[in-house]
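R.M. (postdoc): so does anyone remember the format we settled on? I'll just put the structure tokens first.
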């Protein structure tokens, strides 16, 4: 457990005000290489047609300059038994529209993917717990054809990394899984519960970024981010999801955590440029999203910053988070 210093108490007080409801969808997409941008676009279009109010609340919040979209897509950890799969997270106020957002997946499946409307089947759905453990979701939407049994070993308190795949077993022909969508908010938790993957936050670890990380300083890409750069981005991301009346308090506290990051032992960034090339249907242009991928080793761990970084592993950092960019994995050890 993390020592209950004043810093961590403050951090957890703030993080406890941000709810997250993370799902993993196991898919079947014959004839289509389903990318995260493709799935996000198809689901967003279905939601737009299904419920305009929910669409604008999640994709285009009223205070869009201060509040980011309340969802995130990212590729699920590679597991050849169940690929393809996608992680789909809901944050904060988006949970108020959770049933509608899940029903949009039903419409997405009915419509299919790509210009030829290839079939999409959601084979199974699981919720993710604070340590990355898998939890069955019996009622998701009508089109879910199968149910998932989670062995007890998957409920282990600390995952090897926050994105580690865990064993699961698919059971076919489950009538329970084909019931009408109903709220799954019982699977929601707050970012204060996000688990650090080691019992000791002062143990050596690596912060690994497999997807492009897009942090900017004075309009330029940060190509060798430090821990302070990551903490600045994490504080900005957390602050955007806090209730408006709490943002001032959060901003007043963040300089202290940035100073802690600067004083934390760390090795130089090891990585390379990694760009994401995608087509924007809304803008009708090809886009290059420039970023970096790599790792930052912390030989003495993050210490008091562990709760913030554990939350950042779920929130992601920088620009393009809704498409899975800025994903951070925490790996024990620095070797």
């Amino acid at each position: 457990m993390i020592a209950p210093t004043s810093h961590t108490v403050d951090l957890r007080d703030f993080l406890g005000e941000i709810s997250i409801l993370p799902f993993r969808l196991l898919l079947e997409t014959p004839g289509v290489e389903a990318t995260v941008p493709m799935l996000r676009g198809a689901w967003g279009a279905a939601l737009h047609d299904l419920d305009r109010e929910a669409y604008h609340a999640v994709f285009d919040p009223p205070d869009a300059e201060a509040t980011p979209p309340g969802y995130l897509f990212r590729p699920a950890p590679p597991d050849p038994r169940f690929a393809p799969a996608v992680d789909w997270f809901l944050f904060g106020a988006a949970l108020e529209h959770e049933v509608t957002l899940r029903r949009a997946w039903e419409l997405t499946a009915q419509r299919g993917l790509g210009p030829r409307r290839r079939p999409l089947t959601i084979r199974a759905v699981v919720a993710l717990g604070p340590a990355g453990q898998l939890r069955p979701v019996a009622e998701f939407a009508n089109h879910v054809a199968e149910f998932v049994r989670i062995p007890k070993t998957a409920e282990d308190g600390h995952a090897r990394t926050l994105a580690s795949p865990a064993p699961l077993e698919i059971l076919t022909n489950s009538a329970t899984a084909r019931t009408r969508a109903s709220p799954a908010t019982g699977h929601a938790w707050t970012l204060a519960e996000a688990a650090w993957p080691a019992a000791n936050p002062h143990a050596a670890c690596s912060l690994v970024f497999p997807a492009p990380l897009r942090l900017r300083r004075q309009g330029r890409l940060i190509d060798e981010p430090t821990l302070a750069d990551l903490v600045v981005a994490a504080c900005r991301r957390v602050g955007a999801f806090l209730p408006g009346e709490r943002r001032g308090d959060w901003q007043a506290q963040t300089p202290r955590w940035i100073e802690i990051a600067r004083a934390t032992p760390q090795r130089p960034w090891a990585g390379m440029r990694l760009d994401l090339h995608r087509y924007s249907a809304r803008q009708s242009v090809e886009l290059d999203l420039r970023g970096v991928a790599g790792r930052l080793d912390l030989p003495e761990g993050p210490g008091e910053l562990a709760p913030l970084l554990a939350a950042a592993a779920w929130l992601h950092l920088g620009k393009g988070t809704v498409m899975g960019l800025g994903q951070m994995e925490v790996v024990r050890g620095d070797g």
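R.M.: ...and that's the designed sequence above, right after the tokens. Also worth knowing: Residues 226 and 269 are 7 Å apart (CA to CA). The two ends are 23 Å apart (CA to CA).
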